[in-house]
Design brief:
The complex is a heterotrimer of chains A (270), B (124) and C (386). Chain B has 124 residues and is mainly alpha-helical. Chain B has five helices and two strands; from the N terminus they run αααββαα. The N and C termini of chain B lie far apart (52 Å). The longest helix of chain C has 33 residues, at 353-385. The radius of gyration of chain C is 21 Å and the shape is globular. The chains are: A alpha+beta (270), B mainly alpha (124), C mainly alpha (386). β1 (42-44) of chain A pairs antiparallel with β1 of chain B, so a sheet runs across the interface. The complex binds iron/sulfur cluster (3 copies).
């Protein structure tokens, strides 16, 4: 059965049918619902979601031995998050990648390091800084820190693409969609949105997985190389490692308080 | 007077131009979009207390902000029913033409499917 | 008053149509960018701001520099600037409009640009920058238009504009200070994170802006019957301001170089090395920076010695100073802020042809605004002179 034009108009309201169903039809939707409804609508979190006060990540360098260990981790993020591959460095988009010691920890390099150490591959992603300069810079609130768990999130709907956040982030964690990403994604994962031209993106600590009760994809793929947990919980694994072992963070002298810690030389277990 | 005449003439031309589409469509039967009544009823039941067809853009904007900004991904409607906020789930599988046919009919082009996967033919 | 812009000589119209043609090319280039994205520019993941934001930064300075005429004239009753002031205010209007256009063409999602006002973020310097720029545009439109209108009628400007004129003085300082804060507050961008950035910005602005203004005034004198400086020494007074501002600017720059190199801090030194000598074999900015350095010194020298009175050498000196500042702020400053990048690697930036067309198009829009506004001002003056 199909709806005829009169029924449709009645339901749509004449304005919407004319294509004018803009914001002036209803600005105070809340008030309107509350008037008509038996119960005020509300919003909730998913019940099975993982929660924390301060999500943090430990990168255990001892677990990244082979090229395969690294590729697997990067691939896991790239495929589920629809990361495009433009085939050039200029337009490149990446959420997690690797670099060597002297470029990751620019302030700590020294010329006497052995080749072995120099070539250690460090996994790099957004640090979800406690004190994020990208958030401070963003003029629209499209980059913001979640009050309850400290994740630095992106709202791609709101981003105007001014790239102030890219200038502000001292870690090079952010990428901009210089071109339409869709034609450059190998296979699109339909469960996760792609991004559109002209917005900035970065690692989000997999908020879409956390709310389903899953750990981040890279953590799952790392076979213990990436450890994820609540830094505010004294019993969590990340907290135990960070408080009892020697870990380093990128550019900690800038005061942004990164939440990604690197455990170097942590062979023995906690 | 001369000036006045010219103004009136240009006004008539102006009005004429702008009403061409109206005259063009006059007398043509307007069939309305091909929409399944059951689907429309389901759509309306998302939030029975408002006119969903007219107001869903505002409601969905609110959903989006709650989802992205506050991590609140479940909507409890005025009848106490919980609904997962998800454009993908809402729009159904790719063959489902509910959103597309109505948007096409009203010549509305939402940008949702620029990024979210959605029904066939929704992307520009 | 606007009707005055609609009558003019053949030469006037030829110039207008030339500008319109350049603008049309710019608009076409922009449409291409609008459809295909900022990938059409030379900007990259590492150098995420380029010519657009650099021009914006430079032009905020030009806009602010009107204050160098307004302050002496209105605050200290320095009558000599009487005929120049309106040219300064109109230059500021054109400059602010260009600034806004440069921001507009730089953002990736221009249709959403109002989000800055819909979701104002009080911790973002960019929000304040937008506010002060818009305010400055309104102030100058109101002041310029009413004072000129009063002059046309032969009456003194209405009383209510006086407070607005006074307001424009701190406001002019604020637009360039806030623009400097965009850069000076970013951790990890060592070329920008310096306490004297705002002071440097103001000094270079007060050199480049008035230099451009005098050049325009000389043109006006040549092309029309209206003389903005009929032997009253207005231009030479302004030259003094330019000279001191430029010396201050160079001094501040030397302070920066000293701090970086004497402290031997690698992060501080790297961008300076990049712009003067090249880094890791990347030298694209080196010729520009040395040209700017030479021009700055030539310009200052010509303005210190009596050569500043010379009809031929004065424009050369002013042009040198203008270009030196334009290279420093309109090219080098923004790009070198991203070199080396967060990983101490060097990615160079080369603007694309499309990008340059857009830049030229926006400058043509600015030139068109200046032409029209100056035409109006000149017509009013010529009329009153008769
Ligand atoms: S790493 Fe960069 S993008 Fe991530 S939170 Fe810190 S400053 Fe922001
Ligand atoms: S590019 Fe987007 S996220 Fe970054 S500062 Fe601008 S609006 Fe915010
Ligand atoms: S946490 Fe998630 S988004 Fe971030 S790098 Fe890992 S997989 Fe990618």
């Amino acid at each position: 059965m199909s709806v005829n034009r009169r029924q449709f108009l009645k339901r749509a309201g004449a304005l919407t049918a004319l294509g004018l169903g803009g914001s002036f039809v209803l600005t105070g939707i809340r008030g309107k619902i509350a008037d008509a409804a038996s119960q005020t609508p509300s919003y909730q979190k998913q019940k099975q979601g993982l929660v924390a006060k301060h999500w943090a990540m430990v990168v255990d360098m001892s677990k990244f031995k082979t090229e395969e260990d690294i590729e697997r981790v990067i691939q896991s993020c790239d495929t589920i998050h629809n990361i495009p591959d433009f085939g050039n460095k200029k337009d490149e988009i990446k959420w997690i990648w690797k670099d060597d010691f002297e470029h990751t920890f620019t302030e700590s390099k020294n010329e006497y390091l052995t080749e072995n150490f120099k070539e250690l591959p460090f996994m790099i992603m957004c640090n979800h800084c406690e004190n994020p300069p990208c958030v401070k810079a963003c003029p629209t609130g499209a980059t913001f820190k979640r009050a309850d768990d400290g994740i630095v999130m992106m709202d791609y709907h709101r981003c105007i693409g001014c790239r102030f956040c890219m200038g502000a982030c001292p870690f090079g964690a952010r990428s901009f969609n210089y071109r339409d990403p869709k034609p450059h994604i190998k296979t699109i994962n339909p469960d996760f949105p792609t991004r559109t031209i002209g917005v900035v993106e970065k690692c989000t600590f997999c908020v879409e997985r956390l709310e389903k009760g899953l750990k981040p994809a890279c953590v799952e793929a790392s076979k213990g190389g990436l450890i994820f947990g609540d830094l505010d919980d004294t019993n969590s694994e990340v907290r135990k490692i960070i408080s009892s072992k020697f870990t380093i963070r990128r550019k900690s002298e800038l005061g942004t308080q990164p939440s990604v810690y690197y455990l170097v030389g942590g062979e023995e277990s906690v | 007077m001369h000036k006045g005449g010219r103004i009136i003439a240009s006004l008539i031309i102006f009005v004429g131009l702008f009403t061409i589409p109206f005259f063009y469509n006059m007398g043509k039967a307007n069939a309305g979009p091909e929409i399944d009544a059951q689907q429309l009823a389901n759509f309306q039941s998302i939030e029975p207390s408002i006119n969903m067809v007219a107001n869903h853009p505002q409601l969905f904007n609110q959903w989006r902000n709650q989802f992205v900004q506050n991590g609140q991904t479940v909507y409890v409607n005025s009848e106490g029913k919980s609904i997962d906020i998800s454009l993908e789930k809402l729009a159904g599988d790719s063959s489902n033409q509910f959103c597309v046919s109505c948007h096409n009919y009203t010549a509305v082009k939402p940008t949702c499917w620029d990024c979210h996967s959605g029904p066939e033919g929704a992307r520009k | 008053m606007f009707e005055k812009a609609l009558t003019g000589s053949k030469r006037y119209w030829a110039w207008i149509f030339f500008l319109l043609a350049v603008i049309a090319l710019g608009v076409m280039a922009y449409l291409r960018q609008f459809n295909e994205g900022l990938g059409l520019t030379g900007m990259s993941r590492d150098v995420s701001w380029g010519l657009y934001i650099a021009q914006f930064t430079f032009l905020v300075g030009v806009a602010a520099s009107a204050v160098m005429l307004v302050t002496p004239y209105y605050l200290h009753d320095f009558k000599r600037f009487g005929k120049l002031v309106i040219l300064g205010e109109f230059l500021a209007i054109a400059a602010v409009i260009m600034c806004i256009l440069f921001i507009f063409v730089d953002v990736g999602q221009p249709m959403r640009i109002l989000n800055v006002l819909l979701y104002p973020q009080l911790h973002s310097v960019m929000f304040y920058d937008m506010c002060v720029l818009a305010g400055y545009l309104v102030i100058n439109l109101v002041v310029g238009w009413t004072t000129l209108g009063a002059e046309k009628k032969g009456t003194p400007p209405p009383k209510w504009v006086k407070p607005i004129i006074y307001l424009s003085i701190p406001w002019a300082f604020s637009i360039h200070t806030v623009t400097a804060f965009l850069y000076a507050g970013l951790p990890g961008r060592f070329f920008w994170m310096t306490a004297i950035m705002a002071a440097r910005f103001l000094a270079s602005a007060f050199a480049a802006g008035p230099a451009l203004l005098i050049l325009l005034a000389l043109l006006v004198r040549k092309l029309s019957k209206f003389d903005p400086d009929p032997g009253i020494g207005a231009i030479q007074s302004l030259v003094k301001i330019i000279r001191y501002a430029m010396i201050a600017n160079v001094f501040f720059y030397i302070c920066e170089v000293f701090t970086a190199f004497y402290s031997n801090s690698p992060d501080e030194m790297a961008p300076f090395k990049y712009v003067f000598f090249g880094l890791d074999g990347h030298t694209s900015l080196v010729p520009f920076m040395w040209t700017a350095a030479v021009l700055a010194i030539v310009g200052i020298a010509l303005l210190i010695f009596p050569t500043r009175e010379n009809k031929v050498l004065l424009p050369i000196a002013l042009l040198s100073i203008f270009l030196a500042n334009w290279i420093d702020k309109g090219i080098v400053l923004i790009i070198a802020g991203f070199v080396p990048n967060s990983f101490e690697r060097v990615t160079e930036y080369f603007p694309s042809g499309n990008e340059i067309s857009i830049v030229v198009g926006i400058y043509a829009i600015g030139a068109l605004i200046i032409t029209v506004l100056y035409k109006i001002a000149i017509s009013v003056r010529e009329q009153n002179q008769i």
